[in-house]
Amino acid sequence: MPERAERGSYGQFCPVAMAAEIICNRWTALVLRELLAGSTRFNDLRRGVPRMSPTLLSKRLKELEDANVIVAEPTQHPGVVDYRLTQAGENLRGVVDSLGFWGQRWIESSLSLQKLDPALLLWDVRRNLKVKALPHRRCTLKFIFPELASERRSWWLVVDGDKVDLCLTDPGCDVDLYVRGPLRDLTAIWMGISSLDRELAAGTIQIDGDQAIAHSIHAWLGLSSFAKIERKVR
């Protein structure tokens, strides 16, 4: 039996059906989202899809490789590869962006805000941080979600040059700025459902620490690429 049939074929020659056999498997669109956002290593991809099992991630990557959407390039580290998008993979950028635009415009915000994940939120914040708007030295930003269990309450972003590391355990650096507030409210800011100014004025988000970094937060705290999309539902 052909491999495509084993995965579940629609049995149609239509290009929509043929493409859907590749990109509409569960989790595949999110793996593509991470690849298009610049993640190339397996562990980085896992951080972008934290609820996906390593086994299933490996399977989806192999399927994308078989479909010539990505290539696995060896690195200087034994057993470690970089997953790179092919031209076919890059051509999926518009497809994935369109899914995001549609979701931001038409999915009710109350539904989106039921699916909260501090790991995913801070991973997205990490890669959209505008490091050039921060002081030209190592900066440590601590995010605190008071309502979460102790093991998921505190997160650190350590910015050193162009490199931004996300830590769940204390990196041992002096903290330059503390950002404290409910996960739901910070997620709403990130998604463009609310605004930082609104939450600061309401007292739901509190900022403390280096005043220069605090005053420039609008410059360095990047938002979701979909945050400015006009929402048709609330």
TL;DR?
This protein has 234 residues and is of the alpha+beta class. The protein has 2 domains: 3-106, Arc Repressor Mutant, subunit A; 110-220, SCP2 sterol-binding domain (Nonspecific Lipid-transfer Protein, Chain A, 2-Layer Sandwich), CATH 3.30.1050.10.
Task: Give me some keywords for this one.
234 residues; alpha+beta; Nonspecific Lipid-transfer Protein, Chain A; five-stranded mixed sheet; 2 domains; Arc Repressor Mutant, subunit A; 15% strand; two-stranded antiparallel sheet; disordered N terminus
Radius of gyration: 20 Å
Task: Let me know the CATH homologous superfamily of the largest domain.
Answer: SCP2 sterol-binding domain
Per DSSP E runs of 2 or more residues, the count of β-strands stands at 7
Biggest sheet, in brief?
A: 5 strands, mixed
Strand-pairing-aware structural class: alpha+beta
Task: Give unreliable regions as ranges.
Answer: 1-6
Order of helices and strands: HHHHHEEHHHHEEEEHHEHH
Average residue pLDDT: 92
Percent range for helical residues?
40-55%
CATH class of the largest domain: Alpha Beta
Instruction: List the strand order in the largest sheet.
Output: 5-4-3-6-7
Architecture of the largest domain, according to CATH?
2-Layer Sandwich
Query: What is the count of distinct domains?
Result: 2
CATH topology of the largest domain: Nonspecific Lipid-transfer Protein, Chain A
